[in-house]
Amino acid sequence: MSNNNNMICDLETGVCGVAEEEEMEVIDFNQPKKSVNLYYVTDPICSHCWAIEPNLRRFVEQYGDYFNFHTVMGGLLEKWHDGPIDPANGIYKPADVAGHWREVGEYSRMPIDGSLMIDNPVQSSYPPSRVFKVIQKNHSDALAFEYLRRAREELFAFNQNISDTSVLIEIVNKLGLNGEAIVNEAKQPIGQQLLNEDFALTRSLGARGFPTIIMINEENKGVKIVGGRPFEYYVDGLKKALNVEELQPKQQPALSTLLEKEKLLFSKEIEVMYDVEKSAINTFIEKELTPGSFQVKELLGELYFTSTK
Predict the structure, then answer these.
(1) What is the CATH number of domain 255-307?
(2) Can you tell me the distance from the alpha carbon of 168 to that of 161, in angstroms, rounded to the nearest whole number?
(3) How crowded is residue 290: how many other Cβ atoms within 10 Å of its Cβ?
(4) Which of 18, 112, 189, 192 is the most core-located residue (most Cβ within 10 A)?
């Protein structure tokens, strides 16, 4: 039988329901102080960085009030040369990347085509990285981060060479910016100068692989997380950096709001954000989104959803 004690109104305390011990208390409704700096060391052509997008997005959405988020370019590939690039993973030439990327995509369910690394390989990750830095300098961190997402979509999902000037210009134009001006500025000495500053920061943070997430607290102590990890791993790292047992996450945004902001989401990203099973994704979408507000397509066996707004 249900307990109806909450329906009892106490004449002495004047409370309907469970009476608190204190008659008056001070409540702080301010946002938590951002006492942690989070550095996300990454690269536009890092496949494992693409793979952690679902977990990283949810972490930032729900716990971003606790930290200042900084994206740092790490410089994964300056250029191809005759020697081994990544012998541990069997990567000596561009074509060797294709199978590795496809494997990462299948494992993470963030699809990667990868065939361009055989037909029209990315020659360097520096050009898209320099564009990121110029957008960050001239506009905002948020717009630069959106550019990074669009660049990765074009590279991994849609097989576009993001070291190519025309591809970069088109990506930046779609952000509502002057793509030609920004890409041209990125080719000037200032572009490499900005990138070198990130490389110096990467070295000072002790980051040698991508992705690396480093959280540093006010005592200049912190937590370093290398490689793609589950969502809970980042939450635990933040607790350690803050030296607390519990954190109060924000409610996830409504899917309609998130999709309108992000423009494109893969099924895996929605599943992680809202704790939805893969088998239930269509039911969830029908419940959360109004007909006509989105389109659904398939890529390499994975569904993805785009906003029509």
Answers:
(1) 1.10.10
(2) 9
(3) 8
(4) 112
